[in-house]
Amino acid sequence: RDQQVEQILDASREFVITIDRNETLSIVNEIARRKLGFKPGMVFRDLLDPTDVKHTTSFLYSLSKISSSSNINLILLHPVNRQRFYLSGSVSSTVAEGILVNFRLILHDVTEKTKTEKARDLYYSIAHHSIHSKNLDELYYNIHKELKAVVDCENLYIALIEEVSEDKFIT
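User: That's the sequence. What structure does it adopt?
Assistant: Structure tokens below.
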């Protein structure tokens, strides 16, 4: 019977993960092993994006007192290359005699959707600045500030090339 359940979990397109009371992954289905790089025995907290640890652990703690379920959004990191995965789904807790047994997560990948939304917001923000900036210096400053919030752009420079006859000048 356990083998049948494992086959069903491995056939799923959703990430199915069970976390025990010690924050250790106990069940990880095939797609979560393959795409996320997760394995049973890994510590869940170590897989959370550092910006999301406090929020996620306090949320799970709130579910650990009674058997319940809720929707959840997570930012998890691949254990080897630290690639971010934005996941959304449900989490349910199992509590027996007042003691947490485990959390069961069923998640789907919303990484591309999240990246697309962030890119769209960035484009809108830059368009807004291009309309409302008083001068080029302010525009460039605001573009740099917006990009800096999304990517490392300390070495980003914006240059205007001015053509005078055959020669090109950078201004």
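The chain has a mean pLDDT of 86.
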